[in-house]
Design goal:
Chain A: It is an enzyme of class 4 (lyase). Chain A: GO terms for molecular function: carbonate dehydratase activity; zinc ion binding. Chain A: Reversible hydration of carbon dioxide. The complex is a heterodimer of chains A (227) and B (285). Chain A has 227 residues and is an alpha/beta fold. Chain A folds into two domains: 37 residues; 187 residues, 3-Layer(aba) Sandwich (Beta-carbonic Anhydrase, Chain A). Chain A is 51% helix and 14% strand. Chain A contains ten helices and five strands; from the N terminus they run ααβαβαβαααααββα. Chain B is α/β, with parallel strands linked by helices and 285 residues long. Chain B has two domains: 46 residues, no CATH class; 178 residues, Carbonic anhydrase (Beta-carbonic Anhydrase, Chain A). Chain B is 42% helix and 11% strand. In chain B, strands 2-1-3-4-5 form a five-stranded mixed β-sheet. Classes of the chains: A alpha/beta (227), B alpha/beta (285). At the A-B interface, helix 1, helix 2, helix 3, strand 2 and helix 4 of A face helix 2, helix 3, helix 4, helix 5 and strand 2 of B.
Chain lengths: 227, 285
């Protein structure tokens, strides 16, 4: 390992100590409370992109938001990884809000619009091409390339929200407890600001129920439940 | 190929001098945070490493209209607060680092790929004291890596091959709910197949785990799980290639939620282990 790399890692451990001290200074019992367990109100599903750190952009402390991050904030219907996260957050932690957060300048979304064979990444990114296909007319009508790409980022968030709402966990919990509510956001790297896409959760839920209704059978509720 | 040299590169860093021990004893009662009465009891989770958080609280649950209608959310609501904090954070970050956002808009060059748990207490960028643009992140339930999982597979491929990160970190943490679940035997639906690798690790180490007191056994499984995920990371040819060709480092960390401190595991492999790994997993174009 080069000296440079050793320094980088050493800096991180130093930073970690500074962060611990700062937290304790603000609240002497900060870590004692965290040691007692987590009761986050939010599940955040966002992109792995290093420029979009969940806690920082939301100004939330450790312990306040349960986080799943993958390439391009996708919620594929058969991805066991994200489905386990949704299931756990809703059925076991009882989160009040689920946020799907995309961001402009998303490399994953850009890659999905590029005619290149990216090997292992192809099947994952194909979900974004499917989003394009679902909204082909709207996207094709946008002349400006950047605007079209930004709109695809937004629509990708909308479709991920829809996939979250298709789950039995969300449908059952909402029927029994009136939460969680699903929100779609986009983060703008240029100014660091979040934009709420104002997803109409109730309307979207009503819309998907015709085909994706999974909340009738109480047998499958809670601990035995599926996604 | 120089197995000795590679061993150097596989070798983890010296232990942090102020490493901490995992918390001992049982965790305390969770703080009451939600306004829930008994009509709205969340079921006691098999994941819970603590008592449930719905104890004595006289306030009534949020009504549908309260939770559903954003305009009725008051200023103490964390969702409203989060969006408000974001404005302050963006302004403050831009003041302290005027070049950061304009630079970030042009691309990312993170040095670290972080594979950690979704647990809300494990906020990686905060605990590392780093900035936006520094850490590429995948977080899932119990920082488990399934060999065939496309989600984590795509993350590792993109981070190592395209972003060329210098470090891959797998970080587990004390009081992990996923680990607690895998130490038990309750059916959990879709979570069962997800937690399967944890149970495989449990099976392989059953004798040692059963020889320990319950809380220590859970912390031991946390560590074994990090090692297993590192194992999966270094079974990927793209990772082996980066280790050999440009000195990519892989690290195993444990985050102690009771103190906020990170501890580095010694993940040094013998030359023989590394040699076998390369023979079995390194692929040529």
């Amino acid at each position: 390992m080069t000296e440079d790399m050793k320094r980088n890692i050493a800096t991180i451990f130093e930073n970690n100590k500074k962060w611990v001290s700062a937290k304790k200074e603000g609240d002497g019992a900060f870590f004692d409370k965290l040691a007692a367990g987590q009761t986050p109100d939010y599940l955040y599903i966002g992109c792995s992109d290093s420029r979009v750190p969940a806690n920082e952009i939301m100004g939330l402390e450790a312990g306040e938001v349960f986080v799943h991050r993958n390439i391009a904030n996708l919620v594929p219907n058969i991805d066991l990884n994200v489905m386990s996260v949704v299931n756990y957050a809703v059925r076991h932690l009882g989160v009040k809000h689920i946020i799907v957060c995309g961001h402009y300048n998303c490399g994953g979304v850009k890659a999905a619009l590029t005619p290149t064979d990216l090997g292992l990444l192809n099947p994952w990114l194909r979900n974004i091409r499917d989003v394009y296909r679902l909204h082909e007319k709207e996207l094709d009508a946008i002349q400006d390339e950047t605007k079209r790409y930004n709109r695809l980022v937004e629509l990708n968030v909308v479709e991920s929200c829809r996939n979250v709402i298709k789950t039995a966990a969300v449908q059952q919990s909402y029927r029994q407890k009136q939460y969680p509510i699903v929100h779609g956001w986009v983060f703008d790297l240029q100014d660091g600001l979040l934009r709420d896409l104002h997803i109409d959760f109730e309307e979207m839920l009503k819309d998907v129920m015709k085909i994706y209704h999974l909340s009738d059978n109480e047998m499958h509720s809670e601990t035995s439940g599926g996604a | 190929m120089n197995p000795g040299g590679l061993a150097m590169q596989f070798r983890g860093l010296a232990r942090a001098s102020q490493a901490v021990h995992p918390i001992a004893g049982l965790p305390r009662l969770a703080p009451v945070r939600h306004s829930l009465n008994t009509t709205f009891l969340p079921r006691v989770s098999a994941f819970s490493t603590t008592a449930p958080a719905y104890c004595a609280n006289s306030q009534s649950p949020p009504t549908a209209s309260e939770t559903n209608n954003k305009s009725s959310l008051d200023s103490t609501d964390k969702y409203v607060a989060g969006l408000r904090h974001n404005k302050n954070w963006a302004a403050q970050t831009a003041r302290e680092h005027p070049d950061l956002f304009p630079t970030l808009a042009n691309g990312q060059q993170p040095q670290i790929l972080w594979i950690g748990c979704s647990d809300s207490r494990c906020a990686e960028t905060s605990m590392l004291g780093l900035l936006p643009g520094d850490v590429f992140v995948h977080r899932n339930i119990a920082n488990i890596l399934h060999p065939g999982d496309l989600s984590s597979g795509a993350v590792i491929e993109f981070a190592v091959k395209h972003l060329k990160v210098k470090h891959v970190v797998v970080c587990g943490h004390t009081s992990c709910g996923g680990v607690a679940a895998a130490m038990g035997s309750k059916q959990l639906g879709i979570l069962d197949p997800w937690l399967l690798p944890l149970r495989q690790v449990r099976e392989r180490n059953l004798a040692i785990l059963e020889s320990l007191p319950v809380d220590q056994a859970a912390e031991k499984l946390v560590e074994l799980n990090v090692r297993e995920s590192l194992n999966i990371v270094t079974q990927k040819s793209v990772v082996l290639e980066a280790i050999q060709e440009r000195g990519l480092q892989v690290h195993g960390l444990i985050y102690d939620v009771a103190s906020g401190v990170l501890r580095e595991l010694d993940t040094t492999d013998s030359d023989e282990v590394i040699k076998k790994r390369l023979v079995a997993f390194k692929l040529e174009e």
